[in-house]
Protein 1
Amino acid sequence: RTDRTDFLPWGVEGGKPGTPTRNYLNPDIEPQELPGKYLTTLKQGDVYRMIQAGGGGYGDPLERDVYAVLDDVRQEKLTLDHVRREYGVVIDPGILELDLAATEKLREDMRIREGETGR
Protein backbone atom coordinates (compact mmCIF):
# COMPACT_ATOMS: atom_id res chain seq x y z
CA ARG A 1 0.00 0.00 0.00
CA THR A 2 1.42 3.36 -1.00
CA ASP A 3 0.13 6.91 -1.03
CA ARG A 4 0.64 9.94 -3.24
CA THR A 5 0.18 8.05 -6.50
CA ASP A 6 -2.58 10.35 -7.78
CA PHE A 7 -2.42 13.51 -5.68
CA LEU A 8 1.02 15.09 -5.75
CA PRO A 9 2.68 16.67 -2.72
CA TRP A 10 2.06 20.39 -3.11
CA GLY A 11 4.68 23.09 -3.37
CA VAL A 12 4.65 26.29 -1.32
CA GLU A 13 5.62 29.92 -1.97
CA GLY A 14 5.57 29.34 -5.73
CA GLY A 15 7.19 25.90 -5.61
CA LYS A 16 6.08 23.17 -7.99
CA PRO A 17 4.36 19.96 -6.87
CA GLY A 18 6.51 16.97 -5.98
CA THR A 19 6.71 13.72 -7.91
CA PRO A 20 4.24 10.85 -7.44
CA THR A 21 4.91 7.49 -5.85
CA ARG A 22 5.26 4.77 -8.48
CA ASN A 23 5.18 0.98 -8.01
CA TYR A 24 6.55 -1.51 -10.52
CA LEU A 25 6.69 -5.27 -10.80
CA ASN A 26 9.74 -6.59 -12.67
CA PRO A 27 10.80 -3.12 -13.83
CA ASP A 28 13.88 -4.29 -15.74
CA ILE A 29 12.38 -7.33 -17.48
CA GLU A 30 8.69 -6.94 -18.26
CA PRO A 31 7.68 -3.76 -16.45
CA GLN A 32 4.19 -3.61 -15.03
CA GLU A 33 3.14 -0.42 -13.24
CA LEU A 34 1.00 -1.21 -10.21
CA PRO A 35 -1.62 0.96 -8.51
CA GLY A 36 -1.02 2.35 -5.03
CA LYS A 37 -3.43 -0.07 -3.35
CA TYR A 38 -2.69 -3.52 -4.71
CA LEU A 39 -2.61 -7.06 -3.33
CA THR A 40 -0.56 -9.73 -5.07
CA THR A 41 1.75 -12.63 -4.36
CA LEU A 42 5.30 -12.29 -5.62
CA LYS A 43 6.94 -15.30 -7.19
CA GLN A 44 10.55 -16.27 -6.63
CA GLY A 45 12.66 -14.04 -8.88
CA ASP A 46 10.07 -11.23 -9.05
CA VAL A 47 11.33 -7.73 -8.34
CA TYR A 48 9.15 -5.06 -6.76
CA ARG A 49 10.33 -1.47 -7.08
CA MET A 50 8.72 1.48 -5.31
CA ILE A 51 9.81 5.01 -6.14
CA GLN A 52 8.70 7.15 -3.20
CA ALA A 53 6.96 10.48 -3.77
CA GLY A 54 9.21 13.51 -3.66
CA GLY A 55 8.22 16.54 -1.62
CA GLY A 56 6.89 19.67 -3.22
CA GLY A 57 9.22 22.54 -3.94
CA TYR A 58 9.73 25.66 -1.88
CA GLY A 59 9.89 28.93 -3.78
CA ASP A 60 9.86 29.78 -7.46
CA PRO A 61 12.44 27.55 -9.18
CA LEU A 62 13.28 30.39 -11.57
CA GLU A 63 14.46 32.42 -8.57
CA ARG A 64 16.84 29.73 -7.30
CA ASP A 65 20.47 30.83 -7.06
CA VAL A 66 22.21 29.72 -10.26
CA TYR A 67 25.44 28.89 -8.41
CA ALA A 68 23.53 26.57 -6.05
CA VAL A 69 22.07 24.85 -9.12
CA LEU A 70 25.54 24.55 -10.67
CA ASP A 71 26.83 23.04 -7.41
CA ASP A 72 24.05 20.43 -7.47
CA VAL A 73 24.99 19.49 -11.05
CA ARG A 74 28.67 19.18 -10.18
CA GLN A 75 27.74 16.94 -7.24
CA GLU A 76 25.62 14.84 -9.64
CA LYS A 77 22.42 15.55 -7.70
CA LEU A 78 20.72 17.03 -10.77
CA THR A 79 21.16 16.52 -14.51
CA LEU A 80 21.85 19.21 -17.09
CA ASP A 81 18.49 18.51 -18.73
CA HIS A 82 16.62 18.81 -15.42
CA VAL A 83 18.16 22.14 -14.41
CA ARG A 84 17.51 23.60 -17.83
CA ARG A 85 13.87 22.43 -17.84
CA GLU A 86 12.98 23.14 -14.17
CA TYR A 87 15.29 25.98 -13.09
CA GLY A 88 16.00 27.65 -16.42
CA VAL A 89 19.74 27.30 -15.89
CA VAL A 90 22.07 26.75 -18.86
CA ILE A 91 25.34 24.97 -18.12
CA ASP A 92 28.05 24.15 -20.66
CA PRO A 93 28.21 20.33 -20.60
CA GLY A 94 31.88 20.18 -21.57
CA ILE A 95 33.27 22.27 -18.73
CA LEU A 96 30.32 22.45 -16.30
CA GLU A 97 30.30 26.24 -16.23
CA LEU A 98 27.30 28.56 -16.20
CA ASP A 99 26.23 30.39 -19.32
CA LEU A 100 24.78 33.42 -17.54
CA ALA A 101 23.53 35.20 -20.67
CA ALA A 102 21.73 32.09 -21.92
CA THR A 103 20.33 31.46 -18.43
CA GLU A 104 18.92 34.98 -18.19
CA LYS A 105 17.30 34.66 -21.63
CA LEU A 106 15.87 31.19 -20.90
CA ARG A 107 14.43 32.29 -17.56
CA GLU A 108 12.84 35.33 -19.20
CA ASP A 109 11.28 33.11 -21.90
CA MET A 110 10.05 30.62 -19.27
CA ARG A 111 8.43 33.40 -17.23
CA ILE A 112 6.61 34.63 -20.34
CA ARG A 113 5.38 31.09 -21.12
CA GLU A 114 4.27 30.55 -17.51
CA GLY A 115 2.38 33.84 -17.60
CA GLU A 116 0.57 32.68 -20.72
CA THR A 117 -0.36 29.31 -19.19
CA GLY A 118 -1.18 30.67 -15.74
CA ARG A 119 1.12 28.16 -14.04
Note: The two ends are 31 Å apart (CA to CA).
Protein 2
Amino acid sequence: MIRFNHRDIPALTLSDYIPSRHFRTILPELREIPRGIREISVVIEFSKDSTFFRTVLPAFYSGMMYIYGYVHDNDRLREIFQEEMAEEYPGRRIGLFDWQEEFLLVFENGSRTCDKRYVVSVEEVWNLLRNCYHPTEV
Protein backbone atom coordinates (compact mmCIF):
# COMPACT_ATOMS: atom_id res chain seq x y z
CA MET A 1 0.00 0.00 0.00
CA ILE A 2 1.28 3.44 -0.92
CA ARG A 3 1.62 5.87 1.98
CA PHE A 4 0.88 9.53 1.36
CA ASN A 5 0.35 12.73 3.26
CA HIS A 6 -3.12 14.03 2.51
CA ARG A 7 -1.90 17.62 2.75
CA ASP A 8 0.09 16.98 -0.43
CA ILE A 9 -2.96 15.97 -2.47
CA PRO A 10 -4.18 18.69 -4.86
CA ALA A 11 -7.80 19.81 -4.92
CA LEU A 12 -10.04 19.93 -7.95
CA THR A 13 -13.64 20.79 -8.81
CA LEU A 14 -15.66 17.58 -8.88
CA SER A 15 -18.34 18.84 -11.27
CA ASP A 16 -15.69 19.48 -13.94
CA TYR A 17 -15.10 15.72 -14.09
CA ILE A 18 -18.35 14.22 -12.81
CA PRO A 19 -21.21 16.59 -13.67
CA SER A 20 -24.43 15.57 -11.93
CA ARG A 21 -26.38 15.55 -15.20
CA HIS A 22 -24.01 12.82 -16.47
CA PHE A 23 -23.98 10.70 -13.31
CA ARG A 24 -26.43 8.01 -12.21
CA THR A 25 -26.53 5.82 -9.15
CA ILE A 26 -27.46 2.15 -9.28
CA LEU A 27 -28.65 -0.39 -6.75
CA PRO A 28 -25.84 -2.64 -5.41
CA GLU A 29 -27.40 -5.77 -6.89
CA LEU A 30 -27.11 -4.25 -10.39
CA ARG A 31 -23.32 -3.82 -10.29
CA GLU A 32 -22.74 -6.97 -12.34
CA ILE A 33 -24.97 -5.81 -15.20
CA PRO A 34 -22.79 -4.35 -17.98
CA ARG A 35 -22.61 -0.56 -18.00
CA GLY A 36 -23.01 1.65 -21.03
CA ILE A 37 -20.07 1.62 -23.44
CA ARG A 38 -19.12 5.23 -22.56
CA GLU A 39 -19.68 4.93 -18.81
CA ILE A 40 -17.08 4.69 -16.06
CA SER A 41 -17.77 2.91 -12.76
CA VAL A 42 -17.91 5.11 -9.67
CA VAL A 43 -17.98 4.01 -6.03
CA ILE A 44 -18.73 6.45 -3.23
CA GLU A 45 -17.75 5.23 0.23
CA PHE A 46 -19.18 6.93 3.31
CA SER A 47 -17.71 6.75 6.77
CA LYS A 48 -19.86 4.79 9.21
CA ASP A 49 -20.64 8.01 11.09
CA SER A 50 -21.83 9.92 8.04
CA THR A 51 -25.40 11.13 8.48
CA PHE A 52 -25.21 14.25 6.34
CA PHE A 53 -25.67 12.37 3.07
CA ARG A 54 -28.61 10.32 4.30
CA THR A 55 -30.77 13.43 3.82
CA VAL A 56 -29.84 13.61 0.12
CA LEU A 57 -30.21 9.99 -0.92
CA PRO A 58 -33.43 8.09 -1.65
CA ALA A 59 -34.72 5.99 1.25
CA PHE A 60 -33.57 2.68 -0.26
CA TYR A 61 -29.95 3.81 0.23
CA SER A 62 -30.43 4.41 3.95
CA GLY A 63 -27.77 2.72 6.03
CA MET A 64 -25.53 1.88 3.06
CA MET A 65 -21.86 2.73 3.28
CA TYR A 66 -21.30 2.38 -0.48
CA ILE A 67 -23.15 4.02 -3.35
CA TYR A 68 -22.45 2.67 -6.83
CA GLY A 69 -22.93 4.55 -10.05
CA TYR A 70 -21.70 5.45 -13.50
CA VAL A 71 -20.53 8.66 -15.11
CA HIS A 72 -20.57 9.29 -18.85
CA ASP A 73 -17.09 9.72 -20.29
CA ASN A 74 -16.19 13.33 -21.11
CA ASP A 75 -13.22 15.43 -22.25
CA ARG A 76 -11.99 16.14 -18.71
CA LEU A 77 -12.00 12.43 -17.82
CA ARG A 78 -10.19 11.59 -21.05
CA GLU A 79 -7.48 14.10 -19.99
CA ILE A 80 -7.03 12.12 -16.76
CA PHE A 81 -7.04 8.69 -18.41
CA GLN A 82 -4.04 9.11 -20.75
CA GLU A 83 -0.66 7.36 -21.04
CA GLU A 84 -0.23 4.87 -18.17
CA MET A 85 -3.69 5.79 -16.87
CA ALA A 86 -5.13 4.47 -20.17
CA GLU A 87 -3.94 0.91 -19.44
CA GLU A 88 -6.90 -1.52 -19.60
CA TYR A 89 -9.04 1.50 -20.53
CA PRO A 90 -12.47 -0.19 -20.31
CA GLY A 91 -11.83 -1.23 -16.69
CA ARG A 92 -10.97 2.21 -15.33
CA ARG A 93 -12.87 3.35 -12.26
CA ILE A 94 -13.37 6.29 -9.95
CA GLY A 95 -13.67 6.26 -6.15
CA LEU A 96 -14.85 8.93 -3.73
CA PHE A 97 -13.95 8.29 -0.08
CA ASP A 98 -15.46 10.18 2.85
CA TRP A 99 -12.81 11.85 5.00
CA GLN A 100 -15.44 13.74 7.04
CA GLU A 101 -14.22 17.26 6.16
CA GLU A 102 -13.53 16.46 2.50
CA PHE A 103 -13.56 13.55 0.07
CA LEU A 104 -10.62 11.78 -1.53
CA LEU A 105 -11.21 11.37 -5.27
CA VAL A 106 -9.23 8.52 -6.85
CA PHE A 107 -9.03 7.83 -10.58
CA GLU A 108 -7.69 4.29 -11.24
CA ASN A 109 -6.55 2.77 -14.49
CA GLY A 110 -8.12 -0.51 -15.55
CA SER A 111 -5.15 -2.65 -14.51
CA ARG A 112 -5.09 -1.02 -11.02
CA THR A 113 -1.38 -0.25 -11.42
CA CYS A 114 -1.69 3.52 -11.46
CA ASP A 115 -3.95 6.12 -9.90
CA LYS A 116 -4.36 9.86 -9.52
CA ARG A 117 -5.63 11.34 -6.25
CA TYR A 118 -7.33 14.62 -5.49
CA VAL A 119 -9.46 16.10 -2.74
CA VAL A 120 -12.92 17.53 -3.32
CA SER A 121 -15.24 19.34 -0.97
CA VAL A 122 -18.12 17.72 0.88
CA GLU A 123 -20.44 20.28 -0.70
CA GLU A 124 -19.48 19.15 -4.20
CA VAL A 125 -20.27 15.52 -3.39
CA TRP A 126 -23.53 16.62 -1.76
CA ASN A 127 -24.48 18.55 -4.93
CA LEU A 128 -23.57 15.57 -7.11
CA LEU A 129 -25.81 13.21 -5.15
CA ARG A 130 -28.61 15.71 -4.77
CA ASN A 131 -28.80 16.46 -8.51
CA CYS A 132 -27.89 13.17 -10.21
CA TYR A 133 -30.19 10.43 -11.50
CA HIS A 134 -31.28 7.79 -9.00
CA PRO A 135 -32.96 4.47 -9.95
CA THR A 136 -36.45 5.78 -9.19
CA GLU A 137 -35.92 8.62 -11.68
CA VAL A 138 -34.57 6.64 -14.64
Note: The two ends are 38 Å apart (CA to CA).
Protein 3
Amino acid sequence: MAAPEPPQGGGEVDPALEQALQVKLGEYQIKLMGAEQIGFTIDNMIASEDEQSALLWLAPVDLATGEVIATEPGLAVGVKDDTQPGGWQVLLPPDSQFNASLDAFPVKLLPIELQAELYGEKNGLDSSLDGVILRGYKLPWAAGVSRRLSGSIGHFLIYNSCNETRCRYAYDFADGTMFPLLAAKGGTVKDYYDGCYNGDSTCTNYLTIEDRSTSPTTWQIYYHMAANSIPAELKKAGTSVLQGQYIGNVDDTGYSSGHHLHYHVTSGIYYYTTYYGQRVPWGSSVDIRFD
Protein backbone atom coordinates (compact mmCIF):
# COMPACT_ATOMS: atom_id res chain seq x y z
CA MET A 1 0.00 0.00 0.00
CA ALA A 2 1.35 3.44 -0.91
CA ALA A 3 2.25 5.74 1.94
CA PRO A 4 -0.01 8.78 2.42
CA GLU A 5 1.17 12.20 1.34
CA PRO A 6 3.17 14.05 3.99
CA PRO A 7 1.77 17.02 5.88
CA GLN A 8 3.27 20.44 5.27
CA GLY A 9 6.61 20.90 7.04
CA GLY A 10 8.26 24.25 7.59
CA GLY A 11 7.01 27.51 6.13
CA GLU A 12 7.43 28.72 2.56
CA VAL A 13 10.84 30.28 2.07
CA ASP A 14 10.88 34.04 1.51
CA PRO A 15 12.90 34.70 -1.70
CA ALA A 16 14.57 37.61 0.11
CA LEU A 17 15.81 35.15 2.73
CA GLU A 18 17.29 32.88 0.07
CA GLN A 19 18.98 35.91 -1.45
CA ALA A 20 20.36 36.92 1.95
CA LEU A 21 21.80 33.42 2.31
CA GLN A 22 23.55 33.62 -1.04
CA VAL A 23 25.04 37.01 -0.14
CA LYS A 24 26.26 35.58 3.16
CA LEU A 25 27.77 32.55 1.47
CA GLY A 26 29.62 34.87 -0.89
CA GLU A 27 31.29 36.48 2.12
CA TYR A 28 32.36 33.05 3.39
CA GLN A 29 33.35 31.58 0.04
CA ILE A 30 37.09 31.60 0.71
CA LYS A 31 36.58 30.10 4.19
CA LEU A 32 34.42 27.11 3.27
CA MET A 33 36.09 23.82 2.40
CA GLY A 34 34.82 22.58 -0.95
CA ALA A 35 33.28 25.98 -1.74
CA GLU A 36 34.34 25.73 -5.40
CA GLN A 37 32.24 22.59 -5.87
CA ILE A 38 29.40 22.93 -3.36
CA GLY A 39 26.83 25.65 -2.73
CA PHE A 40 23.79 25.73 -0.46
CA THR A 41 20.09 26.49 -0.72
CA ILE A 42 17.35 26.67 1.90
CA ASP A 43 15.62 23.29 2.14
CA ASN A 44 13.32 24.10 5.06
CA MET A 45 12.62 27.00 7.40
CA ILE A 46 11.03 26.99 10.84
CA ALA A 47 9.93 30.34 12.26
CA SER A 48 10.58 31.29 15.88
CA GLU A 49 7.58 31.91 18.13
CA ASP A 50 7.92 35.69 17.77
CA GLU A 51 8.49 35.32 14.00
CA GLN A 52 11.58 37.52 14.20
CA SER A 53 13.94 34.72 13.20
CA ALA A 54 13.89 31.40 11.38
CA LEU A 55 15.85 28.18 11.68
CA LEU A 56 17.17 27.33 8.21
CA TRP A 57 18.05 23.88 6.90
CA LEU A 58 20.71 24.28 4.22
CA ALA A 59 20.81 21.63 1.51
CA PRO A 60 24.20 21.22 -0.21
CA VAL A 61 24.11 21.71 -3.98
CA ASP A 62 26.57 20.30 -6.53
CA LEU A 63 27.52 23.46 -8.42
CA ALA A 64 28.58 21.50 -11.51
CA THR A 65 25.18 19.85 -11.99
CA GLY A 66 22.78 21.96 -9.91
CA GLU A 67 21.74 18.77 -8.10
CA VAL A 68 20.80 18.89 -4.42
CA ILE A 69 23.06 16.47 -2.53
CA ALA A 70 21.05 14.04 -0.41
CA THR A 71 22.46 14.18 3.10
CA GLU A 72 21.77 15.87 6.44
CA PRO A 73 21.40 19.65 5.94
CA GLY A 74 23.64 22.30 7.38
CA LEU A 75 22.09 24.85 9.72
CA ALA A 76 21.77 28.63 9.66
CA VAL A 77 19.56 31.22 11.32
CA GLY A 78 17.74 34.01 9.52
CA VAL A 79 17.14 37.13 11.61
CA LYS A 80 14.80 39.93 10.56
CA ASP A 81 16.82 43.11 10.15
CA ASP A 82 15.33 46.20 8.49
CA THR A 83 18.79 47.61 7.89
CA GLN A 84 19.63 44.78 5.49
CA PRO A 85 18.54 44.54 1.83
CA GLY A 86 15.43 42.37 1.77
CA GLY A 87 15.00 42.70 5.53
CA TRP A 88 16.98 39.60 6.54
CA GLN A 89 20.39 38.83 8.01
CA VAL A 90 21.68 35.25 7.87
CA LEU A 91 23.95 33.82 10.57
CA LEU A 92 26.19 30.81 9.95
CA PRO A 93 27.95 28.65 12.59
CA PRO A 94 31.26 30.58 12.34
CA ASP A 95 29.48 33.81 13.30
CA SER A 96 29.95 34.87 16.91
CA GLN A 97 26.21 35.50 17.31
CA PHE A 98 25.16 32.11 15.92
CA ASN A 99 24.91 30.12 19.17
CA ALA A 100 23.02 32.91 20.91
CA SER A 101 20.59 33.11 17.98
CA LEU A 102 19.62 29.47 18.58
CA ASP A 103 18.14 30.50 21.93
CA ALA A 104 15.08 31.78 20.05
CA PHE A 105 14.12 28.16 19.40
CA PRO A 106 13.21 25.28 21.73
CA VAL A 107 16.27 23.07 22.25
CA LYS A 108 14.38 19.99 21.06
CA LEU A 109 13.65 21.68 17.74
CA LEU A 110 17.35 21.52 16.86
CA PRO A 111 18.80 18.52 15.01
CA ILE A 112 19.81 15.69 17.31
CA GLU A 113 23.47 16.27 16.56
CA LEU A 114 23.31 19.92 17.62
CA GLN A 115 21.32 19.16 20.74
CA ALA A 116 24.16 16.91 21.80
CA GLU A 117 26.87 19.35 20.82
CA LEU A 118 25.43 22.58 22.19
CA TYR A 119 23.27 21.67 25.12
CA GLY A 120 23.64 18.18 26.40
CA GLU A 121 25.19 14.79 26.11
CA LYS A 122 28.93 14.83 25.45
CA ASN A 123 29.14 11.36 23.99
CA GLY A 124 32.66 11.30 22.57
CA LEU A 125 34.58 8.60 20.78
CA ASP A 126 34.90 5.27 22.59
CA SER A 127 38.48 5.26 23.93
CA SER A 128 38.36 1.46 24.29
CA LEU A 129 38.24 1.28 20.48
CA ASP A 130 41.21 3.57 19.78
CA GLY A 131 42.99 2.13 16.76
CA VAL A 132 40.41 -0.65 16.39
CA ILE A 133 38.70 -1.16 13.03
CA LEU A 134 35.54 -3.27 13.08
CA ARG A 135 35.21 -5.46 10.00
CA GLY A 136 32.74 -7.80 8.38
CA TYR A 137 30.28 -5.19 7.06
CA LYS A 138 28.82 -5.18 3.56
CA LEU A 139 27.44 -2.20 1.69
CA PRO A 140 23.70 -2.21 2.53
CA TRP A 141 22.29 -3.02 -0.91
CA ALA A 142 22.41 -5.81 -3.50
CA ALA A 143 25.74 -6.87 -5.01
CA GLY A 144 26.60 -5.46 -8.42
CA VAL A 145 24.74 -2.18 -7.82
CA SER A 146 26.39 1.20 -7.31
CA ARG A 147 25.17 4.01 -5.05
CA ARG A 148 26.58 7.47 -4.50
CA LEU A 149 28.51 8.25 -1.34
CA SER A 150 26.73 11.56 -0.72
CA GLY A 151 28.18 12.18 2.73
CA SER A 152 31.05 11.09 4.97
CA ILE A 153 33.64 13.52 6.35
CA GLY A 154 31.55 16.27 4.76
CA HIS A 155 29.29 15.94 7.81
CA PHE A 156 31.83 17.95 9.81
CA LEU A 157 34.16 19.47 7.19
CA ILE A 158 31.75 20.96 4.63
CA TYR A 159 28.10 21.29 5.61
CA ASN A 160 28.62 20.90 9.37
CA SER A 161 25.51 18.87 10.10
CA CYS A 162 27.29 16.82 12.75
CA ASN A 163 30.30 17.03 15.06
CA GLU A 164 33.44 15.08 14.10
CA THR A 165 33.32 12.90 17.23
CA ARG A 166 29.86 11.70 16.26
CA CYS A 167 30.12 11.45 12.49
CA ARG A 168 33.78 10.78 11.69
CA TYR A 169 32.80 7.29 10.54
CA ALA A 170 29.24 8.00 9.34
CA TYR A 171 28.11 7.43 5.76
CA ASP A 172 25.32 8.77 3.57
CA PHE A 173 24.33 6.77 0.48
CA ALA A 174 21.96 7.88 -2.28
CA ASP A 175 20.98 7.35 -5.90
CA GLY A 176 17.93 9.61 -6.18
CA THR A 177 15.48 6.77 -5.48
CA MET A 178 13.90 5.01 -2.51
CA PHE A 179 16.14 1.99 -3.02
CA PRO A 180 15.80 -1.24 -0.98
CA LEU A 181 18.13 -1.74 1.98
CA LEU A 182 19.87 -4.93 3.06
CA ALA A 183 21.42 -5.43 6.50
CA ALA A 184 25.10 -4.47 6.37
CA LYS A 185 25.81 -6.95 9.17
CA GLY A 186 23.75 -9.38 11.18
CA GLY A 187 22.47 -9.00 14.73
CA THR A 188 19.14 -8.51 16.48
CA VAL A 189 16.57 -5.75 16.26
CA LYS A 190 17.11 -3.18 19.00
CA ASP A 191 14.50 -0.63 17.98
CA TYR A 192 12.64 0.65 14.94
CA TYR A 193 10.07 3.13 13.68
CA ASP A 194 8.54 3.49 10.21
CA GLY A 195 5.34 5.42 10.93
CA CYS A 196 6.52 8.78 9.51
CA TYR A 197 5.07 10.00 6.24
CA ASN A 198 7.52 9.86 3.36
CA GLY A 199 9.24 13.23 3.14
CA ASP A 200 8.10 14.34 6.61
CA SER A 201 10.75 16.68 8.03
CA THR A 202 9.31 16.46 11.56
CA CYS A 203 9.69 12.70 11.97
CA THR A 204 12.41 10.11 11.28
CA ASN A 205 12.00 6.46 10.32
CA TYR A 206 14.86 4.29 11.50
CA LEU A 207 16.08 0.81 12.39
CA THR A 208 18.78 -0.09 14.92
CA ILE A 209 20.44 -3.51 14.95
CA GLU A 210 22.36 -4.71 18.00
CA ASP A 211 25.55 -6.66 17.34
CA ARG A 212 26.98 -8.65 20.25
CA SER A 213 29.66 -10.25 18.10
CA THR A 214 31.77 -7.12 18.63
CA SER A 215 33.52 -6.13 21.85
CA PRO A 216 32.06 -3.95 23.16
CA THR A 217 28.54 -4.48 21.84
CA THR A 218 27.72 -2.14 18.96
CA TRP A 219 24.57 -0.92 17.25
CA GLN A 220 24.00 -0.22 13.57
CA ILE A 221 21.81 2.85 12.96
CA TYR A 222 19.84 3.18 9.71
CA TYR A 223 18.20 6.61 9.35
CA HIS A 224 15.69 8.30 6.98
CA MET A 225 13.85 5.12 5.98
CA ALA A 226 10.56 5.00 4.07
CA ALA A 227 7.10 4.78 5.61
CA ASN A 228 5.82 1.29 6.40
CA SER A 229 8.79 -0.33 4.66
CA ILE A 230 10.32 -2.33 7.53
CA PRO A 231 9.12 -5.95 7.16
CA ALA A 232 6.54 -7.06 9.71
CA GLU A 233 8.76 -9.92 10.87
CA LEU A 234 11.41 -7.43 12.01
CA LYS A 235 9.03 -5.32 14.08
CA LYS A 236 9.89 -6.98 17.37
CA ALA A 237 12.89 -6.26 19.59
CA GLY A 238 15.28 -9.20 19.77
CA THR A 239 14.38 -10.58 16.33
CA SER A 240 17.40 -12.00 14.50
CA VAL A 241 18.57 -10.18 11.39
CA LEU A 242 20.88 -11.87 8.88
CA GLN A 243 23.53 -10.04 6.91
CA GLY A 244 22.05 -9.23 3.51
CA GLN A 245 18.45 -9.55 4.71
CA TYR A 246 15.96 -7.00 3.36
CA ILE A 247 15.20 -4.45 6.10
CA GLY A 248 13.24 -1.65 4.35
CA ASN A 249 13.57 1.19 1.85
CA VAL A 250 15.34 4.54 1.73
CA ASP A 251 13.46 7.84 1.95
CA ASP A 252 14.19 11.34 3.27
CA THR A 253 12.24 11.36 6.53
CA GLY A 254 13.56 13.66 9.24
CA TYR A 255 16.62 15.90 9.02
CA SER A 256 17.36 15.21 5.39
CA SER A 257 17.77 17.04 2.08
CA GLY A 258 16.72 14.13 -0.15
CA HIS A 259 16.31 10.37 -0.48
CA HIS A 260 19.30 8.78 1.24
CA LEU A 261 20.44 6.38 3.93
CA HIS A 262 22.46 7.68 6.86
CA TYR A 263 24.38 4.73 8.30
CA HIS A 264 26.82 4.43 11.13
CA VAL A 265 27.78 2.07 13.91
CA THR A 266 28.01 3.16 17.54
CA SER A 267 29.22 1.54 20.76
CA GLY A 268 27.24 3.95 22.95
CA ILE A 269 23.62 4.24 21.92
CA TYR A 270 21.34 6.74 23.66
CA TYR A 271 18.01 8.42 22.90
CA TYR A 272 16.58 11.91 22.47
CA THR A 273 12.97 13.04 22.44
CA THR A 274 12.39 15.53 19.64
CA TYR A 275 10.28 18.69 19.74
CA TYR A 276 7.54 16.69 18.01
CA GLY A 277 7.58 13.97 20.67
CA GLN A 278 9.49 11.24 18.85
CA ARG A 279 12.11 9.21 20.71
CA VAL A 280 15.11 8.64 18.43
CA PRO A 281 18.45 6.82 18.83
CA TRP A 282 21.89 8.33 18.43
CA GLY A 283 25.52 7.70 19.38
CA SER A 284 29.05 8.50 18.29
CA SER A 285 30.29 6.58 15.27
CA VAL A 286 33.04 3.95 15.44
CA ASP A 287 35.50 2.94 12.71
CA ILE A 288 34.25 0.17 10.43
CA ARG A 289 35.18 -1.28 7.05
CA PHE A 290 32.92 -2.53 4.28
CA ASP A 291 34.51 -5.76 3.03
Note: The radius of gyration is 19 Å.
